[in-house]
Amino acid sequence: MEKKIQTIGVLTSGGDAPGMNAAIRAVVRTAINRGMRVVGIDHGYNGLIRGENDPSVLHEMTLRSVSDIMHRGGTILYTARCKEFKEDAGIEKAKQVCVQQGIDGIVVIGGDGSFRGARDLSLKGIPCIGIPGTIDNDISSSEYTIGYDTAMNTVVECVDKLRDTSQSHDRCSVVEVMGRHAGHIALNVGIACGATAILVPEVPFDLDRDVVSKMHEAMETGKHHFVIVVAEGVGETYSVENLATEIQERTGVESRATVLGHIQRGGSPTVRDRVLASEMGNYAVDLLEKGIGNRVVVMRDNKVVDLDILEALNMTKSIDMNLMRVAEEISI
Considering 16, 120, 136, 273, which one is annotated as catalytic? Predict the structure, then answer.
């Protein structure tokens, strides 16, 4: 018979994402409503490991400790990356802290790296449930991740403002958005903002064919200002500053580079992110209450379901190539 879960921990790990607070709130209130105790773990797996010598990073959460947090970006539990947790000694230390503190299971909100940690801790006997929270929407097992919609809306607002000044000066704005290994933000925002070209890491590009020629064709029809959206992963090998310089040299259009950076991570989460985070947080506690661990809560076929963590980590995901085709066809 599975051990009855009496106390659960909740932590956020990796990059922060709008909606994490809504997930924390759902975990805390669902668990308390079902008679469980909840321990908040500050600073992700770092905090869990430090908990043995620094009890301040572990604190009991109440119904009121999660009041008025749904509308706030970031995470009230703070977040961090933890190199020590990649080693068995670090995982064993975290397990011992759980045993000492009476934590029977943990809800981990984060990305694939966070899920690997949850898997490793589950294998040590501490049931863990992962919830996908990352603005890049790059978790292969889930169609959607908490924070993605908010980030896209933030980027659209920024690019719309850049378009205003580009139009006033007949310029080309080359805008780098987040997405180190995934072009989901770039593709969707590029379409939403009417970008002339969208460059993503999943699709090799040729500057003359995919950008310069398209700008020349548009200029022949009377267009004089442009927006080029570039995913961060492309910029790692071909910086937006260099792209802007080459575009200006090859087209004669004054070009400026803008890196939006971490502004994309912040802001009040959208309705979609708040609702999905709440649903996933509730689902995660339901699994732990049943004594189930080593699972991730994901969206598949527009429904919230759970998968084995290892199965989830072995999945692959790419951008929507039909959407890429649409972008190519209408960006004229």
Answer: 136
Tokens encoding 164: 């205003």
What is the value of pTM for the model shown? 0.93
First and final C-alpha spacing in the chain: 63
Per residue in 113-151, pLDDT (tens digit) is 899 999 999 999 999 999 999 999 999 999 999 999 999
Hey, where are the domains in the chain?
7-147+269-313, 148-265
Q: Are the folds of 7-147+269-313 and 148-265 the same?
A: yes
Residue 203 makes CB contacts below 8 A (sequence gap 6+) with 183, 319, 324
Reply yes or no on whether 136 is catalytic: yes
**CA dist., res. 310 & res. 265, Å (int):** 27
Backbone angles phi, psi at 93, to 5 degrees: -65, -40
What's 228's DSSP letter? E
CATH code for residues 7-147+269-313: 3.40.50.450
Nearest partner of 289 among 127, 85, 139, judged by Cα: 127
Encode pLDDT of 256-299 as tens digits.
999 999 999 999 999 999 999 999 999 999 999 999 999 999 99
DSSP SS3 for 210 = helix
How many of the other CB atoms lie within 10 Å of CB of 165?
12
Architecture of the domain made up of 148-265: 3-Layer(aba) Sandwich (3.40)
Q: Are the C-beta atoms of 205 and 199 separated by less than 8 Å? A: yes
Contact, 77 vs 273, CB < 8 A?
A: no
